Structure prediction request, 333 residues.
Amino acid sequence: MSHPTPAPAAADHLVHQQLGEMARQLHDTLMQLGFMPRLGELTDCLPDARSRLSYIATKTGEAAEKVLNLVDSAKAEHGSIADATRRMAQSIVADPVKAVASGSVMNFVGDVEASTARIDQHLTDIMMAQDFHDLTGQVVAKVVKLAGDIEDQLLKLLLQTAPAGQRQVDPALLQGPVVDPAGRTDVVANQEQVDDLLASLGF
Amino acid sequence: MSSATDMKFLIVDDFSTMRRIVRGLLKESGFNNAEEAEDGVMALQKLRNDRFEFVVSDINMPNMNGFELLAQIKADETLKHLPVLMVTAEARKEDIVRAAQEGAAGYIVKPFTKATLEEKVQKILQKLGK
Prediction:
């Protein structure tokens, strides 16, 4: 079944009208974007922000790995001292004269001194591994400022372009740790509140 | 059935640091047998290829998140008996309720303490009679 074809003059008028509407929409959009010259400048900064965030992830990841390795080493050292102490106590209780005369006590004292020196070094290294905080703190401050500027510009754009009542929040934006639970009723602030909520559900 | 301390745990989290911390805390609580997976996809592969008795899972992960993993476990006849303890930064009540409704055995919000993890694991094991 064929559709009725508009007369040539009417068709020309329809095409002309549609072209006009498209031009109008494009003009309006460009005008709206034109109100946001800072937005263009800010989006140029985004690759830099991404690299800064990657830097933070790398630095904090390296620090965490380093600290965990050092803790493993210190705990192993601590375990060795504890075992040696128990053995030495048994030797002294069994035969104190022999324990001293054989040099076991002095060997033990030397071992403890060496071991505690190594543990002290591990603790110092753990302390030093926190240096990432200073570096990443500065980077975070810059990224936060950039994010704030972009948010400000995007909010203005949103208010000018979004139809009333149609603003929606992407659920993905809500994922992750709750930085500030104060005044919110949709989140929990600690494990006790999780337990209370689960208990109210019969768990 | 193995004793509680021989139980094989699967720790699922996209952050290796968190996997290592959970593994370390479980070890200090006497649970020495644990493996790790970095997302739900890898976790399911491990669960289907090996015998595990306890799953500790994050929620916010790439490829397959914790809720999807939980659903897959509970829909699998051979896996649905496994207790799944969610350990996550997600503190929204709707997430906690959803986890409970979909069969999670427990829910811990990050940051957490060794005592909290130990308490929740023991509570779940007691419920299971282990």
